[in-house]
Amino acid sequence: MTKIHPRLACALPPTTAITDHAIHAERLGYHRLWLFDAPALYGDLWVALTRAATSTARIALAAGVAVPGLRHPMVTASAAASIAEIAPGRLTVAFGAGQIGRRTLGRPPVRVAALAREVRQVRSLLAGEVVEIDGKPCQLLQLPDAGPARPIDVPVWMAADGPRMSAAAREIGVPGVLVTSEPTDPYREVALLRFGTVLRPGEDHRSARVIEAAGPGWAFIAHSAWQQAGIAVDGFPGGKHWRNTIEGLRPENERHLAVYEGHLSLLTDRDRDLVVTAGPALMGAGWVGSPAGIHAHITTAAAAGVTEIVYLPCGPDIVGELEAFAEVFHGCVSPGGGTELGDGAGVAIH
Questions:
Q1: Are residues 156 and 91 in the same domain?
Q2: In angstroms, rounded to a whole number, what is the distance separating the alpha carbons of residues 185 and 309?
Q3: What is the pLDDT of residues 249-298, one digit of tens each?
Q4: Which value, in Å, is the radius of gyration of the alpha carbons in the chain?
Q5: Domain that holds residue 249
Q6: Where are the alpha helices (DSSP H) in the chain?
């Protein structure tokens, strides 16, 4: 019998508020802060990580996820080395295919082989090795005054949703994976990313706060459906009207620029209309529920092998969302009075 002790983490976009949010996350007991990489939507990932690193003392930091093709692998490795020098032992870099970071540039996500190649390249660069990139040998050559000595202690993870990504992660031997659904084949370290909100007494899908906090999650689902096939969003309540609005805003080759405004952050007026029209379906977007309901989600995830719960708060009150989720997480108490989840305790699974 093995006990799983999930850690509490959060994921946020690189915004001007990141310093304040990082300080609050550390104070609230969050183990790690993950930051997005989508330059068209948010500020620079590495600048934001620097701000978070210099304003906090303990919280772990992560690129979640760095996107291949946005930078040369040497640029990513050098940036990671600089953060590691500022905050030794606190940084993890996870790579993903770029579902948003590349879609917002009008580009498709990278293929699994390209993602795996960049993971290997950056990992080798951080180790101080010579690695071939675009047919040319590259190596971190920084002298002591210019960067930390190699090898540099920065674990390199992968986003691993789906069997092909999961298989690649195992083949490469990354120490951990970031996923958006509970794993069917648990990995050594599994960080589960979930959006949603903790309901207050009397709240439901009609509550203004819930619409703003949970709405970006519902909009994310709609954006993904549109990306797969534009008319697919017509199956959502109000989806056809939403699509017609998008089509009226931009020419066909620019519509992605309108779709992703405010993505996983704040609602545009057209996305808010879509969320309101969703009605009770909004309550099924991610983890939207009472404290007891969120507790049940956490327990189920732990039993599935998740080692880190990564909460993605949305809406205008990020600090309030972080506080509410942390209170539920740290208050997961067993009938006997012992803590089931969090530091020092866990749920038992076979």
A1: yes
A2: 17
A3: 999 999 999 999 999 999 999 999 999 999 999 999 999 999 999 999 99
A4: 20
A5: 208-283
A6: 18-27, 45-55, 73-86, 112-126, 163-172, 208-228, 239-249, 255-259, 269-278, 291-303, 318-330
Residue 192 lies in a domain: yes
113-129 average pLDDT score: 98
What contacts 344, CB < 8 A, 6 or more positions away? 5
Q: What is the pTM of this model?
A: 0.93
Q: List all residues 6 or more positions away from 113 whose beta carbon is below 8 Å from its beta carbon.
A: none
In a domain, 146, yes or no: yes
- Structure confidence by residue, pLDDT tens digits, 186-243: 788 999 999 999 999 999 999 999 999 999 999 999 999 999 999 999 999 999 999 9
Rounded to 5°, angle at Cα 309 from 64 and 161: 55
The DSSP element (H or E) to which 63 belongs, if any, is strand 60-66
Q: Do residues 278 and 321 both lie within one domain?
A: no
82 and 178 in a single domain? The answer is yes
Residue 167 to residues 112, 144, 157, 174, 177: CA-CA distances in angstroms?
A: 10, 38, 13, 11, 11
For residue 55, give both structure tokens: 């304003």
Residue type, 210: V
245 within 8 A of 233, measured Cβ to Cβ: no
Domains of the chain: total: 2
Cβ neighbours, 10 Å, residue 300: 12
